Fold each of these.
Amino acid sequence: METDEQALPSVDGCCGDERKSHHTEKTKSNLISRLNRIEGQVRGIKGMIEKDVYCDDVLNVISSVQSALNGVGKMLLEHHMKSCVVERIQDGDTEVIQELLTTMNKLMK
Amino acid sequence: METDEQALPSVDGCCGDERKSHHTEKTKSNLISRLNRIEGQVRGIKGMIEKDVYCDDVLNVISSVQSALNGVGKMLLEHHMKSCVVERIQDGDTEVIQELLTTMNKLMK
Amino acid sequence: METDEQALPSVDGCCGDERKSHHTEKTKSNLISRLNRIEGQVRGIKGMIEKDVYCDDVLNVISSVQSALNGVGKMLLEHHMKSCVVERIQDGDTEVIQELLTTMNKLMK
Amino acid sequence: METDEQALPSVDGCCGDERKSHHTEKTKSNLISRLNRIEGQVRGIKGMIEKDVYCDDVLNVISSVQSALNGVGKMLLEHHMKSCVVERIQDGDTEVIQELLTTMNKLMK
């Protein structure tokens, strides 16, 4: 069954202007190719379950997808902190720290 | 770019016969629908990155995919332990314990 | 301020008999020496905070205590699974699986 | 066996001056009382192991110590980010971001 792109949270900032990320093309293609691989692995896990593959083998693929996803998260966090977070703090907008802490607590759960 | 199903480890058991999981159809469709949602979210994250969506919003979707994936892992682990692991131990095959520990250590990393 | 041993859950099994672990003396002394080191590090962290040591340095000691504690947990889990869990399953008492899953879910949080 | 305070990393900043944290007395006493409780629990775990308490009960105390330790880490991280990190970025010293990322990666492991 084909899956449509999941409806995702709209990104309009509360104060009307829209915050944007500004990755280089190189970073974007790196992130996209990692996510393509993750997407393929998730599809692969579905196939394993449909074919009644032994659970331990499926669990091992799940843990490698978790690691790959952590890798994407860490890469994004680094770019975010070295660009938007520094810029907003230098502009005097320290609200970004609480925003970052909230997101990090979810990632560190 | 369409991603082919990731080449996955072959599942031939060391002693020649092939270990299989034996989920009910209900469990299988539950797992598949969760994985469909995860696949859609991963595709959605790609779209967010292509559209330069603010990193914090992307990181929040990543952490919800991590939770969903953890949920699938825990569900599989429970089924595995309540079926294959118990059966193999009752058959005197305690090697399954070391196999389980190795997999759990990866999941608990 | 000296801290008394934390009041810990009583271990009387619901069915009156008391479940016991049965580690070798070697395992017990290994676990105790790891826990002595962890106790020393926790005391050290208190000292760092009292002396206003830079937070990043304190956070690094906290993460090494977390790793040491994970190591103790994994060691205990292995011993538990290779002794009590196998024995209880071979005795036909499969309740141990749900008990183990509940504990693992807390450790994997 | 009494444990001495663990020898901890010296805190001389690379550029000769010594970085300090600057917690309020209220924060410091909160952190110290949490660490006292953790120290007591670690001592309690040693007692459980010496008395051959059932492993599952010990594992449950370990997971609550892990949560308590995570709580201390998150509290320190928040204070660090809302004070030192903001101040150093506003002073133009963006090296603090890489320092923070390195520490966070260890905590998120």
Note: Residues 25-107 of chain B form a domain with the Methane Monooxygenase Hydroxylase; Chain G, domain 1 fold (CATH 1.20.58.1000).
Amino acid sequence: MLIREDEIRPTFGGHEKFVFRNGWLKKGIDAVRVDRLIFTRDEALVTLGVGKNMVRSIRHWCLATGIVQETEGTGLAKPLAASMLGERLLLENGWDPYLEDMGSLWLIHWQLISNPVRAFVWPVIFSAYFDAEFSKKQLIVLISKQIEQLSIRTTEGTIEREIDCVLRTYVPAGGVRGQANEESMDCPLAELDLIQAIPEENLYRFNIGSKPSLPTAVFGYALFIFLLKRLQTRRTIAIEEVLYQNGSPGQAFKLDENSFVDYLEQLEYQTSGALRINETAGLRQIYLTDDLAVSMENRAYRLLDDYYGRD
Amino acid sequence: MLIREDEIRPTFGGHEKFVFRNGWLKKGIDAVRVDRLIFTRDEALVTLGVGKNMVRSIRHWCLATGIVQETEGTGLAKPLAASMLGERLLLENGWDPYLEDMGSLWLIHWQLISNPVRAFVWPVIFSAYFDAEFSKKQLIVLISKQIEQLSIRTTEGTIEREIDCVLRTYVPAGGVRGQANEESMDCPLAELDLIQAIPEENLYRFNIGSKPSLPTAVFGYALFIFLLKRLQTRRTIAIEEVLYQNGSPGQAFKLDENSFVDYLEQLEYQTSGALRINETAGLRQIYLTDDLAVSMENRAYRLLDDYYGRD
């Protein structure tokens, strides 16, 4: 019953060309908690108060961000259910149901980077360019190659729509950063200011460097979830892997080496040394205690629990 | 991402030799709703108030009856979540949270018959003998053959433990039927009186025939779920298939042909003819309208909704 990672087939176009808007994830998870098959019903238009394509888009974004999941069912449509993270974050008494905390936006961004099935282009785009600047044309070539390797048939139009969706997620429509708000059609993730448009040169630029709005807890959550898949048997991992690999926290959050190590040091302090930076013969490694290694997922959630319960 | 039915690998021994007891399913689903990873934690012993093996057994029975499901997770243990059926049946304001209605026991029984992964021997045993009597030895031969066909390695001891578990589920320990109650160690399903022991001859006997305690709604739910997997394109099915096939409602509930047709006639009435019995040239078939065919799962749940809301 195990699904091997190499069997994962990405899906495209689920967003229906919409980026997700303020309130969509909450709307989606609340509706699913009342009716697990809401997205297959005509009533969804009324319940969610949007048109047919937006209903499909809300479903997509709830699944792509992993705040809801497909469950087993007997019918043609799989019933959805809130995920563990979705429940903790978005229920009325949850961590931050209205995503008012910048930490939550970073968390949602990390969720997309970690979903190669429904947000296939995300980790690819975010991990491919160690240089800051890139063009849309470069992205199209990059994604086309990746898709070719997976022997998936698709069209250039499909690829372009995926890329447009990523760009519109992070770049405000007006091009003015820090302006995404409740009334706008922009994705709340535009507030993260991760990608800037340089329209005069037809280029985009990643904002690489320290991220004052990224809480150590969210960095730590992402790091632990990343390590969970890699440190089943090992206890050490080179810092370079976690900083530069495809889908790594370093690439997801576009950190430079200094700010990355800063976070690791804060985490070393917050975990009372259960995670340590270790330097041997010029090779810097992250070292985990056995205790942390066997409870990494719990610790990941506990970091967020502490963060949101901080006041 | 589709799991084909032929890829399903049965699991054995999850019950830890315990049949499920009164209150276990409710206990399990309630605990999972508070903490999706409860079964992986040491606290489970305290939360559930039972020993370590029983904790594992409760987890098994919750999964085998499909009242909870595994969800996607990042760690080694998959988080569990209440299923759609589990929520509707067992929540405080659910249909019958304490399984006080015989209909609920029939429903739980049907769930086991429908779970070839975690209750593999159930549909096999219940569908193999059209004669009423069988011995434990016969069951061992039967199951061994089935397992051989799947190229699964196991031991005769494992097979015997599975069969013992099935027999103890339906045959009260004292051998006296209709005596399963809250204080006893028997499985509540013993009340269904589906299997009787004939100790003097070392045999068991299926109770084949009409089942006055089986509500039409539960029969109908089972029938619709069974048809859902078979009538994706067709609109008719021979009554024999639904009566005699492996895992069919006829075999699950050990009905004879007359009582089976009685249920179909009641269902024809209750669905205002959306399901009809049709006889052409001596071949009796079940016929579904398009309208029923496309909404079969909803209709299945609605039957139960109406049944439990009847008073």
Note: Residues 1-5, 177-183 of chain A have pLDDT under 50 and may be disordered.
Amino acid sequence: MQLPSTLLENAVNEFAKLPGIGKKTALRMVLHLLKQNANEVELFSETIAKMRREIKFCQRCFNISDSDICAICANRQRKQEMICVVENIRDVIAIESTQQFNGTYHVLGGVISPLDGIGPDQLNIASLVHRIGEEKTAEIIFALSPNIQGDTTIYYIQKKIQHLPCTVTTIARGIAFGGELEYADEMTLARSMANRLPVQQYVKS
Amino acid sequence: MQLPSTLLENAVNEFAKLPGIGKKTALRMVLHLLKQNANEVELFSETIAKMRREIKFCQRCFNISDSDICAICANRQRKQEMICVVENIRDVIAIESTQQFNGTYHVLGGVISPLDGIGPDQLNIASLVHRIGEEKTAEIIFALSPNIQGDTTIYYIQKKIQHLPCTVTTIARGIAFGGELEYADEMTLARSMANRLPVQQYVKS
């Protein structure tokens, strides 16, 4: 694609670095911005730069935050002795949008994956272990991806905290609501058979 | 979707204003930028702002340009007496990428569409008519969208320039290469029957 201007080309190249954006979509975005008021584009650009410059990570749970301690950690209405361990900030947002969880989070920043060169030291695991000991946490809920890396991470952390008196659970895995049995993969189906629940407990939940 | 930070939310809202970008995709982009170096995000933001601030439109053909006259208009290798009339800059880029056209362009900025409140005065039509008279243009090629608005625009411009001695043509319309007859709409099929070509002319082109 030959573009008629270097300024345009640079802008398209910047947009094309974003995930899932090809050159054509990038061009569409840039031409859209070109049609906007100069002020609006200035605002767009300044908002992005300011976000990157000023955003903080909560010193306790590593969630994104406007201040040193995030709104969830600072909220005394929430059960501070319950920690949900997640991979990233998107997972926090997903769980928050269910409005069903009233505890706090700990964002690991990924899962242990030796093939990708990610070991425990690259993740916020030491701080989690320290936090559990320090805060006398009552329950840890793992909400990690249901794959080998997620399971490895759970296993690793559990080993590290087994001397501490806190309950360790993981979110339920099984057939999704609205999912059809015949399209479920064998692993999920086999596991959900093995971990079957008494109907009375299921109805209550 | 509840976001944990106002800075994050503002950035997501800015991205969500772009065409075809919803809140979830916007969040994915913002979190991607958050993982980049501060310098890279600064560059992203500055490139967009600079593009909007400094980009120019060619004073002759209204194509995007880094200078007052665009590279195509300034190129003496191209047939300056041949003008291809297009709706927007994307069409220029599309035709340029075929590498088959060696004339110049005139970007109208849209087509006449009374329903959307777009009349001839909102478009670069007066400048086109003036340019054809001034430059003694030999041929005008209309490459507009094949719909009522496009046809109206062609008809309007043709009326304005009929006293001038230039040839007026439009790009061929018909069944696309690789297209299947049975899936073509009736209008296209009927028109391509009516405008059929002698096979010898077809083979030559």
Note: The longest strand of chain A covers residues 82-86.
Amino acid sequence: MTEPPRAVFPVRDASAGPADLTLTPAGEPPRLRADAARNRKRLLEVAAELAAERGAANVTMEAVAAAAEVGKGTVFRRFGDRGGLMLSLLDHIEQQIQAAFLSGPPPLGPDAPPLERLRAFGPAVIRHEHAHRDLYMAAHREQSRRYNPSYQVRLTHLTLLLRQVGAPGDVELTGHTLQGYLDTVLVEYLLTSRGMPVERLDAGWHDLVDRLGTPR
Amino acid sequence: MTEPPRAVFPVRDASAGPADLTLTPAGEPPRLRADAARNRKRLLEVAAELAAERGAANVTMEAVAAAAEVGKGTVFRRFGDRGGLMLSLLDHIEQQIQAAFLSGPPPLGPDAPPLERLRAFGPAVIRHEHAHRDLYMAAHREQSRRYNPSYQVRLTHLTLLLRQVGAPGDVELTGHTLQGYLDTVLVEYLLTSRGMPVERLDAGWHDLVDRLGTPR
């Protein structure tokens, strides 16, 4: 989701809804940008809270505007429509787990040895996606988005760690296999429909990583 | 897809469309059943041919009726609607691969040792689903059908073979991992979008089975 193009010195367009003077103080482009980014982030945090409380299906543009105490037009200008809001929200949530495994503290982040990072990756992703399951499940319903940039970031991360631990064989395919184990829909099926405890999934992940990650 | 309930001595219902005397000769229930099953099978074979030639999206009730040289009403009575026809067709196609791995010749079928059967399963499924990819891809678009009876049949088969080869660890989860590698959408992504040769996927499968199937 890219920001809609915005004029540096915006001309008021009556069709765009009520003016949002906080976000677009004409003539101050640098502050405007910083403010806009901050405000966008705040709207996403509000939306994430609403999604956690009520479920993603109940997060409307109106509800976000009311909870953030801004005009409805502000939310529409930021995200275009509800689909845009949901994509931005998923992106925002996904960035949290990305930050954790790319630059967070050990055992997920770069200060731990690669095998420990690999072992920590599965349980972290399972818990993260389960906490935001309605958002991830909704995203997976759009099959075209399955091999999206988030999937590729995770794949690159996993194949890098696999190379670091000296994994044998075709590490790209092994990366896909590991991602398959963490597939949102599979994990929800196992946890919810099959009633498996999450610790069983953790143990299965550790075994999988140990078997696929280390030379025979 | 179950057959719609049918009276043993059917009373002609004008709303059901033109009479199909070949399929429902009143008063001969045994022959009627056998004929009906045979005709249903023939309609599915015609539909499968049409799907292979034109793509599943272009298989209409009318096209099947024309190609099978029966009345359109016959096709509607057999399958209810186009969704019913597609489900029956997928079921018919899936039964071919099920027959191959449950009771077919080696190395897939029961006369081969279990590790050979496991190794043969991946390449066979990859080729089978790729040959019928638009049907399988369409089925996967309906997420609710992902852990359907066909998935369970394959899972039972894989976990049985894994137990037979003495696979360590959580064989049920290993079965899901193996199925994840063969996921229709993943395989099509790797073959089509990533341009991988199918032999690379075969080799990855063999490596995966060897690593997950045998004690360390």
Note: The interface with chain B takes residues 140-141, 143, 146-147, 168-170, 173-174, 176-177, 180-181, 183, 185-186, 189-190, 193, 200-201, 203-204, 207-208, 211-212, 216 of chain A (CB under 8 Å).
